[in-house]
TrEMBL record:
It comes from Sphingobium wenxiniae (strain DSM 21828 / CGMCC 1.7748 / JZ-1). This is DNA topoisomerase. InterPro entries: Topo_IA, Topo_IA_2, Topo_IA_cen, Topo_IA_cen_sub1, Topo_IA_cen_sub2, Topo_IA_cen_sub3, Topo_IA_core_domain, Topo_IA_DNA-bd_dom. It comes from the Bacteria. One of its GO terms (molecular function) is DNA topoisomerase type I (single strand cut, ATP-independent) activity. Its EC number is 5.6.2.1.
């Protein structure tokens, strides 16, 4: 008889699994996040313990060791869970890994069985919802854990590359750039430092921005017995002289021509269901932090069980969920603020231009966030009991799902233009025909009117004679770029390919996942705030003085350290591990090679006083005071805090004789 145990990621998950399947597959044992982690550099080489010299901290073979928690209590909790699992493994023939379905979850489960030397059968239960029905289905459809080997290897690659890059360059930057005697560490992170770069680049653009005003003409045109306002605003080159603009307005009045009118019927599909970064972007407008969105989304998933896995990295759904789409649509049509606008039947759009696409998922083990199709019977009751924050976030998830399966928005688009000489006056307007998904618009921002859609226009025949009766000066003033909130910063992290300057590479990476992962981006931002490199004012992110100093220094000596494009390229290489394009070792060696190059650049850099200076010793200060008193030479203002200033004073004025 096979003796099995189930290993899951955390205690709350263990409770959900036990409630769903009991012990039918053996005891359910929770981990507590990562129970094992990579060994510290000095484990491989004793010389690496001291922060001396410029070393590439790349071991010949990586080792996993028990994790030490942030607190003594957490360390003890993790140790108890390691011992419980190790004991259970001794009597087991089979292990079922039932951790989260993402890359991180795959690493957490697989590293346990590998670190503890289990040699029996290892299976995988993969689920995107933690309700009883979904869990029962997952355990009825177990697959060999080795089927997810590439997912595990992608996680290993990230973990190993981060250690080599982050630790090697943190030490190199600290040794090279922090003056001797100053107690400070210049932390470098493969994701953290480029994220700081994104905010600082935006801040520099804002500080350097100078508004520019250009002028055009807003002309009231009479044609076919009707009036319409057309505009002409030249931009190549723009008119920046107001007097020139006013002269053009005066000259336009009375001019005539033939009005060109074109009307086309168009349609537009609704937005896709959200991934985590979409929710963080939407909630960022409410003033929520990225961490708060993650916390509330997690509660909807594992506590209330009314949504699917929250750390989604994609906005596609698997084609297998097409039948469930009708059930979700019907259930949402029975309650909630979206009830009256919900479609009677779901409109199914497949392929990469649609919503349901296995190809669009690109091998991802989880999909866009949607209402859980397995808990629809209890959804209205659970929804009524949600907190205000939980309900607010669920509303976004529900609306975006309904928009994605609603009919197209159909409208008539009319454009009017009047060419007079070299000037073309034009406008565009729309007339809604079928509201479709736009009937479900709300504060998601994804249902707002598109920028290229205008107001309804009067009915005028094409070719009608048209005359400019009146005209006014039209002004446009450029605006500085907006500062990020946490949601829009996460969007920028996800779309980091925009920072790549090579056109061919930028095109290749336009659909890449950017820097960081859905599971880590919020903690990266929190870490930058905790380190005093970013701060929040009125809901917007600002780099602190220290943050700008770090960015300026690193950008000067080693720009690649703060370049989001560099990390975006690496993230795309990790995705190639998932598809079998490269191996873990190849990726780590590539990162190590670039790390080595950056270390050599830092080796040649000079220390900076941006992080302070070492304080002089007490005897030095006493000697300086004695010289000042005896020779009548004023002391430098920083002689008590600045080693270099105090030493320069002593060198210039001599050491005092010892008295008596």
């Amino acid at each position: 008889m096979t003796r099995s145990i189930v290993i899951c990621e955390k205690p709350s998950q263990a409770e959900n699994i036990r409630s769903a399947i009991g012990t039918s597959h053996g005891d359910v044992l929770p981990a507590q996040g990562h129970l094992f982690t990579l060994a510290d550099p000095e484990t491989y080489n004793a010389d690496w313990k001291l922060w001396q010299g410029f070393h590439l901290l790349l071991p010949d073979q990586f080792k996993k060791v028990p994790t030490i928690g942030e607190t003594a209590e957490r360390t003890q909790q993790q140790e108890r869970k390691r011992k419980a699992i190790a004991t259970a493994l001794k009597g087991a023939d089979r292990v079922i890994i039932a951790t989260d379905c993402d890359r991180e979850g795959q690493v957490i489960g697989t590293e346990i069985v590998e670190a503890l030397g289990f040699r029996g059968e290892v299976m995988r239960a993969m689920f995107t919802s933690e309700d009883a029905g979904s869990l029962k289905e997952a355990f009825a459809a177990l697959r060999p854990n080795n089927d997810y080997r590439r997912l595990y290897e992608a996680g290993l690659a990230r973990e190993r590359a981060d250690q080599v890059y982050n630790l090697s360059l943190t030490r190199a930057a600290t040794i090279a750039l922090i003056p001797p005697g100053v107690k400070a560490i210049l932390g470098i992170g493969r994701v953290r430092t480029p994220t700081l770069g994104i905010v600082c680049i935006r801040e520099i653009a804002i500080q350097r921005f100078k508004p520019a005003t250009s002028y055009g003409i807003a002309a009231t045109v009479q044609a076919g017995g009707r009036e319409v306002v057309l505009t002409h605003h030249p931009d190549k080159p723009p008119v920046t002289d107001r007097a020139q603009g006013e002269a053009a307005v005066a000259a336009a009045i009375g001019q005539s021509g033939a009005l060109v009118v074109a009307t086309n019927r168009k349609k537009k599909a609704g937005p896709k269901p959200p991934d985590l970064s979409t929710l963080q972007e939407v909630a960022g407008r409410w003033g929520w932090t990225a961490s708060k969105v993650m916390e509330v989304a997690q509660a909807l998933y594992d506590q209330h069980k009314i949504t699917t896995y929250p750390r989604a990295e994609t906005r596609f759904l698997p084609e297998a969920l097409i039948p469930a789409a009708q059930d979700i649509t019907a259930a949402l049509g029975e309650f909630g603020p979206w009830k009256d606008a919900a479609p009677a039947l779901a409109t199914i759009r497949t392929g990469k231009q649609g919503v349901f696409s296995d190809a669009g998922l690109g091998g991802e083990s989880h999909h866009a966030i949607i209402p859980n199709p397995k808990t629809l019977d209890t959804l209205p009751t659970v929804y009524d009991a949600l907190s205000a924050d939980e309900r607010r976030l669920f509303d976004v998830i529900a609306r975006l799902f309904l928009q994605s399966v609603s009919a197209d928005y159909e409208y008539s688009e009319t454009s009017m233009s009047l060419a007079i000489g070299e000037a073309t006056y034009a406008t565009k307007g729309t007339v809604p025909i079928v509201p479709g998904w736009r009937a479900l618009r709300d504060t998601t921002g994804e249902g707002d009117r598109a920028k290229d859609e205008g107001d309804e226009l009067p009915a005028i025949e094409d070719g009608s004679a048209a005359t400019i009766r009146t005209a006014q000066l039209a002004e446009k003033t450029t605006r500085a770029p907006e500062r990020f909130n946490e949601g829009t910063l996460i969007k920028a992290m996800k779309n980091a390919a925009q920072f790549i300057t090579d056109p061919a590479l930028k095109e290749r990476l336009k659909d890449a996942k950017g820097i960081g992962t859905q599971a880590t981006r919020d903690t990266v931002i929190s870490g930058l705030k905790d380190q005093g490199l970013l701060m929040v004012k009125a809901g917007k992110l600002y780099p602190t003085q220290a943050g700008m100093a770090v960015f300026a220094l690193l950008h000067k000596v080693a720009p690649a350290l703060v370049d989001p494009g560099t990390t975006a390229v690496w993230e795309s290489r990790i995705d190639e591990i998932l598809s079998g394009g490269i191996s873990v070792d190849t990726f780590v060696q590539e990162v190590a090679a670039q790390t080595r190059s950056l270390i050599e650049i830092l080796r040649k850099a000079e220390p900076t006083t941006a992080f302070g200076t070492a304080a002089p010793t007490a005897p030095m200060m006493k000697a300086a005071e004695t010289i000042s008193r005896k020779k009548g030479v004023p002391l430098p203002s920083s002689y008590r805090t600045d080693f270099a200033a105090c030493k320069a004073f002593l060198d210039a004025h001599g050491t005092p004789r010892t008295e008596g």
